[in-house]
Amino acid sequence: NPYNIARLIKAPPGGGPDPSGEHYRAASSLMRRWISEGALACDEGAAFYPYSQTYTTGSSALTRNGFIGLGDLRDTGLFTHERVHTHVRDDRTQLRLATAADYGLIFMIYTDPERSIDRLLRDCETGSPLLTADQNDGSTHRLYRCSDPMFTRRIVEQMADLDCVIADGHHRTASSVLLGKEKKNNNIHQENIRKWTIMKSKI
User: Fold this and answer.
1) In Å, how far are 3, 27, 106, 134 from 8, measured between CA atoms?
2) What pTM was computed for the model?
3) What distance in Å separates the CA atoms of residue 122 and residue 158, rounded to the nearest whole number?
Protein backbone atom coordinates (compact mmCIF):
# COMPACT_ATOMS: atom_id res chain seq x y z
CA ASN A 1 0.00 0.00 0.00
CA PRO A 2 1.59 3.34 -0.98
CA TYR A 3 0.01 4.94 2.10
CA ASN A 4 1.25 2.40 4.62
CA ILE A 5 2.23 4.36 7.74
CA ALA A 6 5.44 2.33 7.95
CA ARG A 7 6.76 4.44 5.07
CA LEU A 8 6.67 7.44 7.40
CA ILE A 9 7.77 5.96 10.70
CA LYS A 10 10.43 3.43 9.73
CA ALA A 11 13.72 4.06 11.53
CA PRO A 12 17.01 4.75 9.69
CA PRO A 13 19.37 1.79 9.19
CA GLY A 14 20.77 0.82 12.58
CA GLY A 15 17.74 2.16 14.44
CA GLY A 16 19.42 5.31 15.72
CA PRO A 17 19.06 8.97 14.72
CA ASP A 18 20.25 10.03 11.27
CA PRO A 19 22.93 12.70 11.89
CA SER A 20 22.44 14.19 8.42
CA GLY A 21 18.71 14.66 8.98
CA GLU A 22 17.97 13.46 5.44
CA HIS A 23 15.85 10.54 6.66
CA TYR A 24 13.55 12.90 8.55
CA ARG A 25 13.37 15.48 5.75
CA ALA A 26 12.27 12.69 3.40
CA ALA A 27 9.56 11.64 5.87
CA SER A 28 8.39 15.25 6.17
CA SER A 29 8.20 15.58 2.37
CA LEU A 30 6.25 12.33 2.11
CA MET A 31 3.78 13.42 4.77
CA ARG A 32 3.14 16.74 3.03
CA ARG A 33 2.50 14.83 -0.20
CA TRP A 34 -0.01 12.54 1.52
CA ILE A 35 -1.81 15.58 2.92
CA SER A 36 -2.00 17.20 -0.50
CA GLU A 37 -3.32 13.95 -1.96
CA GLY A 38 -5.99 13.65 0.74
CA ALA A 39 -4.58 10.48 2.29
CA LEU A 40 -4.19 12.36 5.59
CA ALA A 41 -6.72 14.88 6.88
CA CYS A 42 -6.77 16.97 10.02
CA ASP A 43 -9.80 16.64 12.28
CA GLU A 44 -10.13 20.15 13.69
CA GLY A 45 -12.77 19.39 16.31
CA ALA A 46 -12.11 17.92 19.75
CA ALA A 47 -13.11 14.26 20.00
CA PHE A 48 -12.36 10.85 21.41
CA TYR A 49 -12.28 7.86 19.08
CA PRO A 50 -13.82 4.64 20.44
CA TYR A 51 -11.93 1.68 19.00
CA SER A 52 -12.81 -2.01 19.15
CA GLN A 53 -11.00 -5.17 18.06
CA THR A 54 -13.07 -8.34 17.68
CA TYR A 55 -11.11 -11.57 17.37
CA THR A 56 -11.44 -15.32 17.95
CA THR A 57 -9.43 -17.44 20.33
CA GLY A 58 -10.28 -21.11 20.28
CA SER A 59 -14.04 -21.26 19.84
CA SER A 60 -14.70 -17.94 21.59
CA ALA A 61 -15.22 -14.55 19.94
CA LEU A 62 -13.89 -11.71 22.09
CA THR A 63 -13.95 -7.93 21.74
CA ARG A 64 -11.38 -5.57 23.22
CA ASN A 65 -12.66 -2.00 23.62
CA GLY A 66 -10.67 1.17 24.06
CA PHE A 67 -10.42 4.70 22.77
CA ILE A 68 -7.93 7.06 21.17
CA GLY A 69 -7.41 10.57 22.49
CA LEU A 70 -4.90 13.12 23.69
CA GLY A 71 -3.68 12.93 27.27
CA ASP A 72 -1.42 15.13 29.34
CA LEU A 73 1.44 13.11 30.85
CA ARG A 74 1.84 15.66 33.64
CA ASP A 75 -1.63 15.16 35.04
CA THR A 76 -2.04 11.41 35.35
CA GLY A 77 -0.53 8.52 37.24
CA LEU A 78 1.58 6.79 34.59
CA PHE A 79 3.55 3.60 35.21
CA THR A 80 6.29 2.15 33.03
CA HIS A 81 7.91 -1.28 33.07
CA GLU A 82 10.59 -1.17 30.35
CA ARG A 83 13.97 0.43 29.93
CA VAL A 84 14.28 3.05 27.21
CA HIS A 85 17.14 3.10 24.70
CA THR A 86 18.36 6.64 24.19
CA HIS A 87 19.13 6.21 20.48
CA VAL A 88 15.60 4.95 19.75
CA ARG A 89 14.03 7.78 21.78
CA ASP A 90 16.15 10.35 19.96
CA ASP A 91 15.23 8.92 16.56
CA ARG A 92 11.51 9.22 17.38
CA THR A 93 12.05 12.75 18.65
CA GLN A 94 13.87 13.86 15.49
CA LEU A 95 11.09 12.41 13.33
CA ARG A 96 8.44 14.29 15.27
CA LEU A 97 10.34 17.57 15.08
CA ALA A 98 10.98 17.25 11.34
CA THR A 99 7.40 16.39 10.43
CA ALA A 100 5.57 18.41 13.13
CA ALA A 101 3.49 15.32 13.81
CA ASP A 102 3.14 12.46 16.26
CA TYR A 103 3.06 8.86 15.03
CA GLY A 104 1.86 5.70 16.68
CA LEU A 105 -0.30 5.24 19.73
CA ILE A 106 0.90 4.84 23.26
CA PHE A 107 -1.03 1.73 24.27
CA MET A 108 -2.16 2.14 27.88
CA ILE A 109 -4.31 0.04 30.16
CA TYR A 110 -6.28 1.07 33.22
CA THR A 111 -8.56 -0.58 35.78
CA ASP A 112 -12.25 0.24 35.50
CA PRO A 113 -14.17 -2.63 37.17
CA GLU A 114 -17.52 -0.88 36.72
CA ARG A 115 -16.76 -0.34 33.01
CA SER A 116 -18.17 3.16 33.35
CA ILE A 117 -15.89 4.57 30.65
CA ASP A 118 -16.81 1.72 28.29
CA ARG A 119 -20.48 2.59 28.77
CA LEU A 120 -19.84 6.27 28.04
CA LEU A 121 -17.97 5.37 24.86
CA ARG A 122 -20.66 2.97 23.70
CA ASP A 123 -23.40 5.55 24.37
CA CYS A 124 -21.45 8.10 22.36
CA GLU A 125 -21.08 5.86 19.31
CA THR A 126 -23.66 6.99 16.79
CA GLY A 127 -24.17 5.95 13.21
CA SER A 128 -21.74 3.86 11.23
CA PRO A 129 -18.06 3.54 12.16
CA LEU A 130 -15.59 5.92 10.60
CA LEU A 131 -13.57 2.88 9.64
CA THR A 132 -14.05 -0.88 9.57
CA ALA A 133 -11.14 -3.15 8.72
CA ASP A 134 -11.13 -6.94 8.41
CA GLN A 135 -7.68 -8.45 8.93
CA ASN A 136 -6.26 -11.65 7.45
CA ASP A 137 -6.17 -13.18 10.93
CA GLY A 138 -9.97 -12.93 11.13
CA SER A 139 -10.09 -9.93 13.45
CA THR A 140 -12.31 -6.92 12.80
CA HIS A 141 -11.37 -3.37 13.79
CA ARG A 142 -13.92 -0.56 14.14
CA LEU A 143 -13.26 3.12 14.79
CA TYR A 144 -15.90 5.66 15.81
CA ARG A 145 -15.85 9.38 16.60
CA CYS A 146 -17.21 10.76 19.89
CA SER A 147 -17.42 14.55 19.85
CA ASP A 148 -20.48 15.24 22.04
CA PRO A 149 -19.19 17.68 24.71
CA MET A 150 -21.27 16.04 27.43
CA PHE A 151 -19.65 12.65 26.83
CA THR A 152 -16.12 13.94 26.26
CA ARG A 153 -16.27 15.99 29.46
CA ARG A 154 -17.45 13.00 31.51
CA ILE A 155 -14.75 10.77 30.03
CA VAL A 156 -12.08 13.32 30.96
CA GLU A 157 -13.46 13.63 34.48
CA GLN A 158 -13.52 9.89 35.07
CA MET A 159 -10.10 9.23 33.53
CA ALA A 160 -8.58 11.92 35.79
CA ASP A 161 -8.89 9.56 38.78
CA LEU A 162 -7.35 6.53 37.06
CA ASP A 163 -3.75 5.38 36.84
CA CYS A 164 -2.46 4.12 33.50
CA VAL A 165 0.14 1.46 32.76
CA ILE A 166 2.02 1.60 29.46
CA ALA A 167 1.56 -1.69 27.64
CA ASP A 168 3.44 -0.53 24.55
CA GLY A 169 5.05 2.76 23.57
CA HIS A 170 7.76 3.48 26.14
CA HIS A 171 10.02 5.15 23.59
CA ARG A 172 7.20 7.30 22.25
CA THR A 173 6.40 8.31 25.82
CA ALA A 174 10.03 9.17 26.51
CA SER A 175 10.10 11.23 23.32
CA SER A 176 7.02 13.15 24.50
CA VAL A 177 8.64 13.86 27.84
CA LEU A 178 11.84 15.00 26.15
CA LEU A 179 9.97 17.33 23.80
CA GLY A 180 8.08 18.75 26.77
CA LYS A 181 11.35 19.61 28.49
CA GLU A 182 12.84 21.06 25.30
CA LYS A 183 9.72 23.12 24.79
CA LYS A 184 10.25 24.75 28.16
CA ASN A 185 13.96 25.32 27.55
CA ASN A 186 13.97 26.20 23.85
CA ASN A 187 10.42 27.40 23.15
CA ILE A 188 9.59 24.62 20.65
CA HIS A 189 6.38 25.48 18.81
CA GLN A 190 4.36 22.57 20.16
CA GLU A 191 1.15 23.62 18.40
CA ASN A 192 2.72 22.48 15.11
CA ILE A 193 3.44 19.08 16.63
CA ARG A 194 -0.13 18.78 17.86
CA LYS A 195 -1.75 19.85 14.59
CA TRP A 196 -1.37 16.54 12.80
CA THR A 197 -1.36 14.40 15.92
CA ILE A 198 -2.08 10.71 15.57
CA MET A 199 -0.71 9.89 18.97
CA LYS A 200 -2.39 9.30 22.30
CA SER A 201 -0.31 11.41 24.62
CA LYS A 202 1.24 14.85 24.58
CA ILE A 203 3.13 17.26 26.82
Assistant:
1) 9, 5, 17, 23
2) 0.77
3) 15
